[in-house]
Amino acid sequence: VLFVKGVQPNVLLIFVVLIFLCSLAGGVVGNPCISLNHLDYYKASRFLSYGVSFIDGLATLKVTQARVSDSGIYVCEAHNDAGSESCSVELKVKEPPVFSRKPSPVDMLKGTEVNLECEISGTPPFDVTWYKDRRQIRSSKKYKVTAKNYHTSVRILNVEAADVGEYQCKAQNDVGSDTCFCTVKLKGKVLAHMLSTVLPMALHCFSLHRHCEYLL
Length: 216
Known about the structure:
With 216 residues, the protein is mostly beta strands. It has two domains: 93 residues, Immunoglobulin-like (Sandwich), CATH 2.60.40; 92 residues, Immunoglobulin-like (Sandwich). It contains one helix and 17 strands. A five-stranded mixed beta sheet has the order 10-17-16-12-13, with no helix packed on it. The protein has a four-stranded antiparallel beta sheet with strand order 1-3-6-5, with no helix packed on it. β14 and β15 form a beta hairpin. The longest helix has 27 residues.
């Protein structure tokens, strides 16, 4: 028994169908005994998601609804009366990033600091980018951006009116991406506007009232 073409390394996006192919040749009378083994441990219930076939010298292993737990070394072994042969392949099943925790809308006080935090699930490493009103922001005197493992955050220093807007975090790896949004507002802005319009009217009414009392 001789493998003329072994299985090739695979990186697989989760929840799709994977097919391993092995081609056999070399003085074989009839079909050899073919066994396809996963060297890593897996639960018996997962056998239902594996399909093995051998047709016209082509051995096939099909994995449906692949999971991260399916990652590992797979070995194709062929046996007949003349001997045996095997080949192997490493399978890596990766998950795209998903934000498992997102920042909530924030009302900030002028002059304070605020921290926007996110938690990411999926297969690292992640490429994380923060934006404000669709413009990328980096660590500076105004912002402190951090991204480590499954956690990322941006700290806004010395909050002012210019910091009001929509903040966006994008995480991506080589199999996908995800984005979350957060709105930042400034506390006291509405109140200040009301005072600037209502207070002069109130003072005017008070002045008229005192004038009327004087006339009486």
